[in-house]
Amino acid sequence: MTTPGSSASRAGEGGRGGGRGLAGIGLLGVGVAAAIYVAGRLNPPDYTFSLFGQANPLGLKSLLGTIALGLAVVQVLLALWIYRRLPLAGRPPRPVPTVHRVVGFVLFALTVPVAVHCLIAYGVQLTSVRVAVHSIAGCFFYGAFVAKVLLVQSRRLPRWPLPVAGGTLAVVLGVLWWTSALWYYNGFQLP
User: Fold this and answer.
1) What is the pLDDT of residues 38-58, one digit of tens each?
2) What are the tens digits of pLDDT across the range 4-48?
3) What angle do CA 54, 59, 64 make, to 5 degrees?
4) Enclosing H/E stretch for 17
5) Closest Cα to residue 74, out of 108, 99, 110, 95?
6) Please, are residues 100 and 78 in contact by the beta-carbon 8 Å criterion?
7) Which of 33, 48, 131, 161 sits a CA distance of 20 to 30 A from 25?
């Protein structure tokens, strides 16, 4: 017998109700990304806006982004352990899901000041391929984050979208890091 929140119950669902739920979550995520995009396009850039009082915030933003990327790698490894996809790892101890949630919260908290600075100081710009990819990926990141949080909270949807959403967040964070922190560390050019 399965309970409403059990793995077997979640894996078996996904008919009409599950499809509508997934579509609703997807639309909400797209809506958040679109709202951030529109706000960034309408916001006149304020290049004097500071991050934590720093005159040149690029170094601090790159450091925070690099830490966030490292935590994203930890998140993926913890998720693989939770889903028993790590070779030779076996069953994860009880604290692993809690550690996964705490690391996820810290990761998200690190991205917020960087995103706020980007949105206020630069807005969403499409002036070059690097800047456009970075701007659009930043908008998409927060839409995907909202979708993932809603997927985590849902007990009525199938299980497969959750690791897909988590993996997507990690990849998008990698794109954001590559188009910003790596660009900064590499002398303002992409390798």
Assistant:
1) 999 999 999 999 888 888 899
2) 444 444 444 444 568 899 999 999 999 999 999 999 999 999 999
3) 100
4) helix 16-42
5) 99
6) yes
7) 131
Own/partner contacts of 179-186, CB < 8 Å, gap of 24 or more, are 179/130, 179/131, 179/133, 179/134, 179/137, 180/61, 180/62, 180/65, 180/134, 181/61, 181/62, 181/63, 181/65, 181/66, 181/69, 183/130, 184/58, 184/59, 184/61, 184/62, 185/62
Give 109: exposed, middle or buried? Use CB within 10 Å, 0-12, 13-18, 19+. exposed
CB 71 within 8 A of CB 106: yes
**Low-confidence residues in the chain, pLDDT < 50:** 1-15
Tell me the whole-structure pTM to 2 decimals.
Answer: 0.86
2: left (phi over 0), alpha (psi -120 to 50) or beta: beta
CA 101 to the chain's CA centroid: 13
Helix spans in 83-160 (H) = 95-117, 129-153
